[in-house]
Amino acid sequence: MGDAPDYKEAEVKLTNLADIYYEPVTSQMKFIKSGKKENMNRMLMVAFLVALIAMINYINYSVALIPYRIKSINIRKIAGASVARLRCAQLFESVVISLVACLPAVLLNLSLDIPVLLRLVSLSLAVGFIAGIYPAVSATSISMQMALKGSYGLSPKGLALRKMLIGIQYVISFTLVILAFVIYQQNRYMESRSFGYGKNRIAVVVLNGKMVGKIDLFTNELKKYSGIEDVAFSSAKVGAEELYRGGGAEKNNEMMYFHYLNVSPNFLSVMDIPVMEGRCPRQEDRQSKELLFVFNRKAKEEYGLEVGDRLITYWKDKGMVIGITDELKINSLRTGAYPLAFVINEKNAGMPVACIKIRQGADMEKATEHIRQTFKEIDPAYPVEIEYYETIIRQLYRDEIRTGRIVSASCLASVLISLSGILGLVLFETQYRRREIAIRKVLGATVKDVLYRFNRTYLMVLIVSFVISVPVSIYFAGEWLKNFAYKVPLDWMVYVVSFFSILLLTVFVVTLQTWRTANENPVKSLSVN
Questions:
Q1: Is 355 helix (H, G, I), strand (E, B) or coil?
Q2: CA gap 356, 203 in Å, rounded
Q3: Which of 404, 291, 309 is nearest to 349 (CA)?
Q4: What is the DSSP annotation of 271-298?
Q5: Each residue of 49-107: pLDDT tens digit?
Q6: Residue 277: beta bridge partners?
Q7: Please, are residues 154 and 432 in contact by the beta-carbon 8 Å criterion?
Q8: Is 501 exposed, middle or buried (0-12, 13-18, 19+ CB in 10 A)?
Q9: Minimal CA–CA distance to 52: which of 418, 409, 403?
Q10: Paired strand residues for 260
Q11: Please, what sign has the CA dihedral across residues 364, 369, 370, 374?
Q12: How far, in whole angstroms, is CA 444 from its chain's centroid?
């Protein structure tokens, strides 16, 4: 809107070189790698939770194996091995297992810097050491009398510990599953929501300086192909930015502030943006001696705008309101609606973004190829990039989509780790309680009764864990949804589906592992020494 006025005050912001990656960039600067610190922190939290589940799983396995290792540990004690030496051996085993598990991650990320790889190995060492402390102390602290009796495996203390560890795993798994569902729903909502403009069959191309000077030639060449309906131009990509260029104007001696885009007269019709009051811009408006404004409904509500209002901009250009659009959302759903104007006929306004409307029924591939060939004819050296709104929307929400994928993968990993832990514990308990199961069957218990007893233990832990995870997941889901001005409500079906999904998987794993022992001949089980 002309030259900017002189401001008496200016704000200068200095950014640490290490934090430049987290600085926001526009879609026109997407070649610059960037990210959000909040998303990075969320990913670190998810990674920590998955690592915590893995640590708990290792502790569970190690504790479950203690009854089988008590005799060898006590034999070493009798042979003169000190408790400290035995504990160091246990810790060393835990650290080695953690390093072996870390090896694939190192091999898959050899392109990383050496300091990063060293941090990864150091983290693996720390995880192995922390996970091995309790099993090492516990296994070497059991008295000789308890070891000889063989009662530690089914002791109340041992059972309570295993249930608590499984419960922690379930709480984390439920929380991640619920978060994955919420993020998926929000992402689907963002991609499918109506924004008040047409997105289908619109190809978007950013022109270079040479092409901007040949807009009429470019348009005529494109429209030679019958599949191209029309071509419009704007100063920025609609639907690809958080915020647009800011401006202001005076109406009846009152100041109003808004974001704006310079557009060609046919832009609103090409983008299927309906004008609810007033009129759409026309081609003859290019000859207008004043600026013409089409505002959105938010501007009308906030400033009481009416069609025909006269405006004087910051830069003393005169203008007139010729139309008001309906509800319009051309920024992301992270931010709320704000006053917005489409400005027609601003002199020397750069409009490098071409919006090419492809006719209904036309072949999209052929139309795209025609656009590409037109660019080659006008400027062969220009590396044209043709985008459609599916790509633009994904680019706008790339952080949320990436977060959803990572959380979903972490959710799957956490559930699989938890179920593998339950599988190991059920295997341990069925082997340790074979005689008990055989005696129950001799006394009249059915296979169904045995399966019920084993499932009941884990189902009680699962239910309690789910109850705990509900407020935890509500809190984290709420924190996630705070990033959006437009968001999906928390659906109770998400909790129902999450609960029954993990419930069915747990019942399947426990039943599968218990079935063989429950169907075993009692005589065979009782004869085992």
A1: strand
A2: 5
A3: 291
A4: TT--EEEE----GGGGG-SSEEEEE-HH
A5: 888 888 887 887 777 777 667 777 777 777 777 878 888 888 888 888 888 888 887 78
A6: 324
A7: yes
A8: middle
A9: 418
A10: 341
A11: positive
A12: 53
